[in-house]
Amino acid sequence: MNIFDVVGENFFKPLTSQFKTIYLDCLTIIYDSYRSELSYGIDREILVSKLSDYFERSNISDIEFEDESEILKDSRSKATTFLRKLKDFGWVEYEISNNQMAKIIMPDYAVTVVKTFLDISNPKEMEYQSEIALIYSTLTNEELLDRPYPQVLRPVFERTHALFDGLKKLNTSIKKYIEAITADKTSEEIISDFFKYHDEIGSKAYHRIKTEENISRFRNTIIGRLRDILNDRDTFERTVKGYQNIENENDYYTAEDEVKAQISAIIDSFRSYDEIVSEIDKKHSKYLKNAVERAKFLLLNTNNTEGKISTILQYIAECYNREEQNNLTEDASDDICALFNIFSHGFLSGESLKTVAISRKITDVEDIFEPVDMTDEERELRRIAISEKNKNRFSKKNVEQYVGTLLSDRNMILASDIPIETKRDLIRVIFISLYGHSTKSEYSVKQKEEIISLQGFRFRDFEIRRRYK
Fold it and tell me: Is residue 297 in a domain?
């Protein structure tokens, strides 16, 4: 169906008119009033009073529409006229109640559009963890399976869309900041954007993705429960019939295909999670690196001779652009010309801006060492010695093997359970904690409040858990 068949041909005209900002403010007031009303609709006089207060507070000057001869001067006439025009455009409707009072209502499509505008203007932080937890709890709640489509599959499908749309928006937001760096900005603006990025993205959305419980903890169960719906014939048939009832689909086989498509889409989304987060990681690192490098370049480049000349030229260009009576095609004033005296230098001296190159004589490079002949036995002994040395290193592989031995058939141990007798044992515990914070590690760590004292060493206790991938 064409959208204009639903909303009407003139629905979007207020948003392209010269008074689009006022129209949007009025719609926001109507929307907020409509949501807060417990009864059906808003009393017209109450709404006119609220709109009048808006025009009074905003000190909006006289308004004259092109298609009307009347000039709107007072706040009430502005409020009633804008309300009437919004009705003509299809944003609101009038309804007469039993007591003959006019009520203002908003059509469902108008509510949806205004809500979308407000979401764009004031974006809210998505709680990724709560969305994942709701999807997980919905799929694992056996009581909901008596109506599997409306109570399980449909809400899970919608929340999955919302979750991954939120991740893609985060990816796009970082991309916007990266592109802004290449714009014509000063070092101060880049540093300001850097802190703004940290406040809005780095310390909030991105931080939550990297520090909260990972989606992989729930992913296998979510995918498994969705496959159960596909494989259990009775549950699947009830899901298809539920789709037919809710979505008004008469053909059983079409409904069956749609249900399978929804389940496949959810599974594919959760499988692509690592790829999306990896892309977000790359963009986050790229932004941090580019912002620092760009700011460093601008800060350093303004302190050398080339940077100072560039700053002077920039200032002169800004002066010309600010003065309408002058333009860049006119001759510069004598005062400006006196600043520059450019001519060919012809030779290099100690006062030249160009550094004089220092010539060096290239000599043959002497051999650093002579190869040492080793017998096969000596070579094998050396290989064994290096191998033993590598086994004793605190590499990620060695530490993960040690933790795997500690966990054995358990899912969790405490750091305080690890035997510590020497300084080397304590260093190993430190490396266990460091590697455990990486999402690519085979185990995870979680800090506890208790301070442990062992063999003269003190450290904060932490849990060591096996990570399931």
Answer: no
pLDDT value of residue 329: 47
- Cβ atoms of residues 28 and 115 within 8 Å: no
Main-chain dihedrals φ then ψ at residue 303, nearest 5 degrees: -100, -15
- pLDDT computed for residue 138 by the predictor: 92
> Which pLDDT tens digit goes with each residue over 299-344?
555 555 666 666 676 676 667 666 555 554 456 666 666 666 555 5
User: Under a CB-based contact definition with an 8 Å cutoff, are residues 104 and 47 in contact?
Assistant: yes
46 and 164 belong to one structural domain: no
Q: Kindly report the CA angle at 196 between 191 and 199, in degrees rounded to 5?
A: 130
The predicted pLDDT at position 416 comes to 87
Q: Which of 290, 315, 347 is the last residue of a domain?
A: 290
User: What's the number of domains the chain is made of?
Assistant: 4
Residue finishing a domain among 121, 137, 163: 121
Same domain flag for 132 and 281: yes
Collapsing DSSP to helix, strand or coil, 315 comes out as helix
Mean pLDDT value across residues 436-451: 85
Long-range Cβ pairs for the range 361-366 (8 Å, 24+): none
CA distance 41 to 105: 5
What integer pLDDT is reported at residue 156 of this predicted model? 93
Q: Are residues 109 and 159 in the same domain?
A: no
- The parent domain of residue 165 ranges over 128-290
Q: Indicate the average pLDDT of the chain.
A: 78
pLDDT at 103: 85
**Nearby residues of 313 by Cβ (< 8 Å), 6 or more positions away:** none
* Spatial separation of the C-alpha atoms in residues 56 and 69, rounded to whole Å: 22
* Residues sharing a CB contact under 8 Å with residue 226, sequence separation 6 or more, in sequence order: 139, 156, 263, 266, 267
Reported as a single tens digit per residue, the pLDDT across 80-110 is 999 999 999 999 998 877 777 788 888 889 9
Whether 158 and 242 share a structural domain:
yes
Residue 351 reports pLDDT greater than 60: no
DSSP secondary structure letters along 1-17: --HHHHH-TTTTGGGGS
Q: Is 113 among the domain residues?
A: yes
The CA distances from residue 421 to 95, 315, 404, 437, 457, in Å, are 83, 68, 20, 25, 9
CA distance linking residue 221 with residue 215, whole number of Å: 11
Q: How many helices (H) and strands (E) does the chain have?
A: 19, 8
**Tens of pLDDT, residues 134-178:** 898 999 998 998 999 999 999 999 999 888 887 777 777 766 666
Least confident segment among 25-29, 91-95, 372-376: 372-376
- As a whole number of Å, the CA-based R_g of the chain is 35
